[in-house]
Amino acid sequence: MTALELINIALTRMNESKLTSITIDTYVADLCRLFLKPVADEVTLEEDWQFARKREALRTDDEGENQTDYGYMYRLPADCLFPRQLRSKGQYEIEDGRLYTGDEAAVLIYTRSMVEIAHDDENGLDIPVLVTSFPVTFAQAVACRLGSQIGPKISDNFNLASALGQEYMVMLEKTKAFDGMLSPAEDEAVELWSDIQ
To answer: What is the crossing angle of helices 3-13 and 27-44, to 10°?
Structure first.
């Protein structure tokens, strides 16, 4: 699924015309580009979704000064929305985009962002890009949430926004049920989804 397809699901749920391109210069397209990433990040942070987990060996950060009692300082991955734990289950602290720990070779398990912002030089726009696979119910939840956020700005229809908010909750519950079926051992779950990047 592309960002345009997800946006068009939201617009269809709002009884609005679909976009032909994510880069067109319209008020609706501007709203969609502006809201998609924060809305998707918000929905992603609702749960510790297994499909949104990623583990990554952290790179040592030699640029800053480590003023903690921990021996090692690492830069957080760019797509990290929320750190869950170190693979070693060791202690850590996070400050200013850096992770401090006593682990010499830290591997972080975290919730990743499902949307990146890429700059389109041709149109001079920052556009959202979906960067990973996720369940259809999650896409529907994001679309409903997006519709509930931008709907009142497009049509002043607050009843529609409320209805989409209720649909969002239903889709969120369906996604939780789906995510619960992905419950093999943690290592297996990460391996299952890691090649879909």
So the answer is: 100
Nearest to 179 by CA among 81, 41, 46, 2: 46
The Cα 123–Cα 116 span in angstroms is 17
Confirm whether pTM is higher than 0.90: no
Regions of the chain short of the pLDDT cut 50: 185-197
Calculate the alpha carbon distances from 35 to 118, 127, 195 in Å.
Answer: 14, 11, 28
**Which pair of tokens denotes residue 87?**
């693979």
Tell me which residue has tokens 């510790």: 48
**pLDDT at residue 182, rounded to an integer:** 61
CA distance 118 to 157: 31
Q: Where are the domains of the chain?
A: 3-50+113-194, 52-112
